[in-house]
Amino acid sequence: MPTDKAVPTDNGAAWDKYSAACQAAVRLSTDVAHYGPDIATEAELRLLGHLRGKRVLELGCGGAQTSIAFAKQGAHAIGVDASGEQLGFARRLCEREGVKVELHHGDLADLAFLRADSIDLVFSAGAFGFVDDLNRVFRQVHRVLRRGAPFVFSLPHPAWRLVDPDDEGPLLVRRSYFDRSPIDREIDGIAFTDHHHTVGDIFAGLTRTNFRVDTVLEPEPLTGGPRSPLWRDAFRLVPRTLVVRARKEGT
């Protein structure tokens, strides 16, 4: 939840500091696309389709576990991340897994290295919660995607922003749903800035950019099994992750 301490808005630099601890704790599989903690993966959700021979772009690829999964399925995988440390981990992991992923260091909307209409799928999991201007990202994604191609992403559910999952006792609303001011928080003593986007904001941004939304999911947590380090009992009461699939229309 928000802190009173002013924090820098350079989330890429924050991820540089947090990368090693995060990767050591989370240990994501490199065999399937992940949408968020303690919910179904692409193996169950099946939103991406067949990837062999396709050019697939992952925004906010982190350690590239999902991009590696795409490469294993025969895709030309391209990953972009704002953290050099995360990409360093990704390169080492690609080498260990014996696959090639094209990795780029930069802002998620800086896609000038890609030609228009050259990508068959854009995917992102969790990264958009750290992005202030989502519409800028949406415009660039629309430019690089082929017409009719899918744009599939997940981000922290807007309802999740309203509560403090570490509260003892009944959950209380701690923040207005309509408060779009940045959310300053710390993870293991490292300062991050999150950005709250309502469902209406996301839908309006996509439609204005000429995307057609065909799927919106609010996955319930998996029953049983081992829990991720991010697990909170509040997952059972408030949706933790929002998943959206949209398709490019127009040119």
How would you explain this protein's 3D organization?
The protein has a seven-stranded mixed β-sheet, with helices on both faces. The chain has a two-stranded antiparallel ribbon with strand order 6-7. It is 25% helix and 21% strand. The chain has six helices and nine strands, in the order ααβαβαββαβββαββ. It has one domain (11-248): 3-Layer(aba) Sandwich (Rossmann fold). The protein is of the alpha/beta class.
Please report the distance between the alpha carbons of the first and last residues. 40 Å
Low-confidence spans: pLDDT under 50, at least 5 residues? Answer: 1-8
CATH architecture descriptor:
3-Layer(aba) Sandwich
CATH-derived topology: Rossmann fold
Coarse morphology: globular
User: What is the topology, as strand order, of the major beta sheet?
Assistant: 3-2-1-4-5-9-8
| Count of domains | 1
Largest sheet: 7 strands, mixed
Specify the CATH class: Alpha Beta
**Helical amount among residues, as a percent range?**
25-40%
Assembly status: single chain
Tell me the number of strands: 9
> Structural class per helix/strand content?
alpha/beta
Series of H and E elements: HHEHEHEEHEEEHEE
What number is the mean pLDDT?
93
Radius of gyration (Å): 17 Å
CATH superfamily: Vaccinia Virus protein VP39
